Please model this.
Amino acid sequence: MKWLSKHWFLLLAGCAAGLTGVWLAATRPASQLPASLDILWAAQLSDLRGAPVRMDQMRGKALIVNFWATWCGPCKEEMPDFQRLAAGDLGKSVQIVGIGIDNPANMRSFGEKLGITYPLLDGGSAALDMLKLLGNPSGGLPYTIVVDRTGSQVAQHLGRISYAELKTLAITAIKQ
Model:
């Protein structure tokens, strides 16, 4: 007790420093969060017809993974740009994958309406946990990550992404 009465200020300073560290970690932007791709590679999803898809089969490819939902306005706005990229010359070098957080029937209907040809996968509610562990602690949509051929995440983007930004990210993934 003598030590505590003499050194209370050290204890108080230590607690303040610890709380400051916790606050800084919780409030830093998503772009600074470390992200491991282990959860992505371990994911076993299904396409919108119910066929299983193992994400680890996409290792070794430049990859753009977009988390989306049909009820998300910005998601719907950017999907034609993803399709444009997938259908163009860059689409031959980078694989685009959409992981939906929605009802598969809704996603299938929406994808058909837009003429989406890149893989759309059913992420279910587990996709929310996945995108949080991939550097998006808020769980906001749309959320896009970019993986190079070595399997390293080279970029992430929260919110609607423009075609120009998407094209730049695709080139970054290919050149790594």
Observations:
- The beta strands are 44-47, 52-54, 62-68, 94-100, 120-122, 143-147, 153-158.
